[in-house]
Design goal:
Blueprint: E1 9-11, E2 17-19, H1 25-41, E3 52-56, E4 63-67, H2 69-75, E5 78-81, E6 83-86, E7 90-97, E8 101-107, E9 117-122, E10 134-135, E11 141-148, H3 150-155, E12 162-166, E13 177-181, E14 187-188, E15 195-202, E16 213-219, E17 226-231, E18 236-237, E19 243-250, E20 253-258, E21 260-265, E22 268-273, E23 280-284, H4 286-296
Antiparallel strand pairs: 1-2, 3-4, 4-20, 5-23, 6-17, 7-11, 7-16, 8-9, 8-10, 11-15, 12-13, 12-16, 13-15, 14-15, 17-22, 18-19, 19-20, 21-22
Helix pairs in contact: 1-2, 1-4
């Protein structure tokens, strides 16, 4: 048995990959299926074929896996569906609830796509009103300050609201908070090569206090056309890093299908190529089916 084939490589949720633990899926499948085979041996064929059988697929070196009902139950096989879904790309940034602001418009040499008018910001309590533009949060709103690079700002969908979340180490918010763009142009920080942006949370019961650090999820540019997706749990990588899913063609019958992954968004895997929409795919037990292939296949 080729032990290399027993090492799974799974992608991270951000699209990267990392080597999985050295889990002997085939050995696990053998342990789970052996009692089923032994139970069947007294009244039928001996060996693992009582629990699992293989059929040739015309034009393919991969064989169709057929489980007994008892084997499928023992492996805990569950399935989901290939779907079409509108995928909205998002990215998380760090933010901070801001003090009142004094915003001055200053003339500066044109830079990139931002034009000749650049804004500077003083992030401290505003003094007495003056002729400059004022941006002072009211009692019914909170302003969230973010710092992005020019490249990050260019990717952001500038007219879309942002979702405000607490830090992972903090408790939950009282309610889901959405922040609207402040409509201020990007504010250039003269000390850094970064741009400062502001989003506004409306409502009195937001529970945010000045200087609270938050996570802010911004929507990125891009179309929202429907894409073919499968559940993340359905995706299986073999020892060579090739992505597969197991298609449930009929009851207790499974075929391994190669897929092409575009990217991973949360619990969804967006496919460049794969089974047709509506196809049932294995979401629990794919690694064990692969293990059964490796150890039992004739």
């Amino acid at each position: 048995m080729n032990m290399e084939s027993l090492v799974a490589v799974r992608p991270g949720r951000n699209g990267g990959t990392f080597a999985g633990r050295f889990v002997t899926f085939a050995a696990t499948a053998a342990l789970l299926l052996a009692p089923v085979a032994a139970h069947a041996a007294g009244s039928g064929p001996t060996g693992p074929s009582a629990a699992v059988k293989f059929e040739k697929i015309p034009g393919s070196a991969i064989k169709r896996v057929i489980l007994s009902a008892k084997a499928a139950q023992r492996l805990g096989i569950e399935t989901g569906e290939v779907r079409e879904k509108s995928i909205v790309r998002k990215q998380m940034f760090g933010g901070q609830v801001s003090h009142s602001l004094r915003v001055q418009m200053v003339q500066k040499k044109a830079r990139g796509a931002f034009g000749a008018l650049v804004w500077r910001v003083t992030a401290k309590p505003a003094p007495q009103p003056r002729m400059d533009m004022q941006a002072t949060p009211t009692a019914d709103e909170a302003w969230i300050r973010l710092m992005l690079s020019e490249a990050e700002w260019d990717r952001v969908a500038k007219d879309k609201p942002a979702r405000v979340l607490p830090l992972a180490t903090r408790g939950k918010l009282k309610r889901e908070l959405m922040a609207l763009p402040s409509k201020l142009p990007p504010l250039e920080d003269p000390k850094r090569t970064m741009l400062t942006l502001y989003y506004v949370v409306k409502g009195k019961d937001h529970g945010l206090k000045a200087n609270d650090r938050m996570r802010v999820e911004l929507q990125l540019k891009g179309d929202d056309r429907k894409r073919k997706v499968v559940p993340y749990s359905a995706l299986y990588y073999d020892g060579k890093g090739t992505p597969w899913v197991y298609v449930n063609t009929k009851p207790l019958t499974f075929e391994r299908k190669r897929v092409k992954v575009e990217r991973i968004e949360g619990d969804d895997v967006i496919l460049k190529d794969g089974p047709s929409v509506g196809t049932r795919v294995v979401t629990v037990g794919a690694a064990l089916l692969y293990g059964a292939e490796v150890i039992f296949k004739r």
